[in-house]
Amino acid sequence: QVQLQESGPGLVKPSQTLSLTCTVSGDSITTIAWSWIRQPPGKGLEWMGVLSTDGSTYYSPSLKSRTSISRDTSKNQFSLQLSSVTPEDTAVYYCVRDIGTVVAEYDAWGQGTLVTVSS
């Protein structure tokens, strides 16, 4: 059974870079796609970007200039970096497995980690 676990600081100062890591067990990050999704307080889910099997990445147009997703295959981990954060980036951040072929289909989620942007 696949398990995903997000880790990283829960508090980031404005203008700094938010960095999170997702550790995957029960599946390989090289055999399927993985995404980052966030949910600000009181708002809906927002897809941020996807890491494909070959290591290529695709980002939400609204976040593309500030977002980077990378992977460490030796540790079966993938990471999110979001630069120049503001309080509007406060959200619960989830790493998810995407088993979709034509459209996204998320079948496994991490528990989520709350990141607060505040000075």
Characteristic key phrases:
119 residues, mainly beta, seven-stranded mixed sheet, four-stranded antiparallel sheet, 0% helix
How is this structure best described in words?
This protein has 119 residues and is mostly beta strands. The chain has no helices and 11 strands. Strands 2, 4, 5, 6, 9, 10 and 11 form a 7-stranded mixed sheet that branches. It has a 4-stranded antiparallel sheet with strand order 1-3-8-7, with no helix packed on it. The radius of gyration is 13 Å and the shape is globular.
Portion of residues within helices? under 10%
Mean pLDDT: 96
* Global outline: globular
Largest sheet: 7 strands, mixed
In short:
The chain has 119 residues and is an all-beta fold. The protein has strands at residues 3-7, 11-12, 18-25, 33-39, 46-51, 57-59, 67-72, 77-82, 91-98, 106-109, 113-117.
Architecture blueprint of SSEs:
Layout: E1 3-7, E2 11-12, E3 18-25, E4 33-39, E5 46-51, E6 57-59, E7 67-72, E8 77-82, E9 91-98, E10 106-109, E11 113-117
Parallel strand pairs: 2-11
Antiparallel strand pairs: 1-3, 3-8, 4-5, 4-9, 5-6, 7-8, 9-10, 9-11
